[in-house]
User: What shape does this take?
Amino acid sequence: MIKKSTFDKIRLILTSRNRGGNQRNIYDFPFKSLLKCGECGRAITAETHTKHYKRTNRSATYIYYRCTKSALDYKCKQGYISQANLTGQFDRLISSCAWPSSLVKRALSTTKALEQNQLGKLLQTKRGLDSQVEELDTNISQLIDLYLKGILTQEEFVFKKNQLTKQKLGLKDKLSRNPNQPTTGFEPVYKLIKNLAVAGKIADQTTNLNLKVAFTKMV
Assistant: This one.
């Protein structure tokens, strides 16, 4: 709850910002978080420079990146680099990761075959464990029959039944840790291949620089 006079002041400030009253917030410096100075290892910062062209009577704003030069015991000699220049370097890096469609198709096919092979092994293991559990159930049932017929004493029955039950619980535990779908281990591989397939398009992207940053972090 605030006073109406306070609300009106806040609305006025927000309106002036939307109309360009605070120009500092409209720029994004996407590459800043990825970079460190190659000379002194310090952080990189970014800033804008506006240039006025008299011949055309227009102004243009450019983004530049530079070393923060924050080292107290070292004088870094590195200058500015424009965002356009820096973007070109990132584009060349991203383009070098691009895979042709034939290689992407082959990689996806091979990964799928590996996944199916692992799934087959897991299913085979599961069938084997299920078979052993069924066999133990049969043995326990036969053990109960022998006890009811008086062939086994109570002590013998309890001892044998405990042994078989312990084995059965061990197999049940293995079954619970043996998933039917091994796809979780292959998901990062599929993701990587698909990203390499679109690397060329990301490099050609002219406006979404954050996409280039995300791809570079993945690399």
Summary: The chain has a mean pLDDT of 86. The first strand starts at residue 44 and ends at 53.
